[in-house]
Design goal:
With 243 residues, the protein is of the alpha+beta class. The protein is 51% helix and 12% strand.
């Protein structure tokens, strides 16, 4: 290509082409420009590198599904959806999506009373698949799931034991200020589908699968929703006036 360009040194165009190929195929435009500057120590070539590397990176992003850094990984059967992307759930805090009206039950409550309340479809007890258990001071003492209730009633049909005895003591919890991605990782690690949200020992919320899906849906809507531009708004206004 340098032979077709009537000005400039051929080595300059070779350097620009090298940086463009490196920045485009590796999806690292800044790395390619810095690498070329380190080789030549010619800061005056930076504008040319910008003009060469940025379009090359844009073209490869549009035409290539993956870079050469992840192509071998993908060929081995591992799905690579996005490269160097931030987990959307890491941008959301637990307090933003949790149910702040946590459906807690007292630990001294009889299991038979709780089962009767669920059978009557009382809203406080049927909103979630699990219920946090608190003591008289409002601090988290445990958690009880529908499965815990069924198993406890099979072993004790009369249900004369307490909810705390039938549930799980010292459950895994989440903090309201931690990223939602960390809470999801905790769920996956311990194999649970919900987390009581605790702050200073006090129960402040409930995080379930529904809350996580709601947060994910909200992030998808923010990503793909298109706001009408100035021309679109004017066109709609004229169309409305004509009708």
């Amino acid at each position: 290509v340098a032979g077709w360009i009537p000005f400039g040194d051929p080595g300059l165009w070779a350097m620009a082409g090298m940086a463009a190929v490196m920045g485009g195929t590796m999806r690292s435009p800044l790395t390619a420009m810095v690498f070329a500057l380190e080789l030549t120590h010619d800061v005056n070539a930076l504008p040319l590198l910008l003009v060469a590397v940025i379009p090359a990176h844009a073209v490869t992003v549009l035409l290539m599904r993956r870079s050469i850094l992840t192509e071998k990984v993908a060929r081995r059967g591992y799905h690579v959806a996005r490269e160097y992307s931030v987990d959307p759930l890491a941008l959301v805090r637990v307090r933003d999506v949790m149910d702040s009206e946590a459906p807690a039950v007292r630990g001294s409550m009889k299991l038979a009373d709780l089962a009767a309340a669920i059978a009557k479809n009382e809203r406080l007890y049927v909103r979630h698949q699990a219920l946090p258990i608190v003591d008289d001071a409002g601090k988290l003492a445990g958690i009880i799931t529908r499965g815990d209730i069924v198993r406890a009633l099979q072993n004790n049909p009369g249900g004369d034991i307490t909810v705390l005895e039938a549930g799980t003591k010292n459950p895994v919890v989440a903090s309201p200020d931690e990223p939602l991605s960390d809470a999801v990782a905790t769920m996956a690690h311990y194999g649970v589908g919900r987390l009581p949200v605790v702050e200073n020992g006090q129960l402040v919320g409930y995080l379930g699968r529904g809350s996580i899906l709601t947060a994910r849906q909200r992030l998808l809507e923010e990503e793909f929703r298109r706001e009408p531009g100035l021309l679109t708004m004017r066109w709609r206004s004229r169309l409305k006036d004509s009708l």
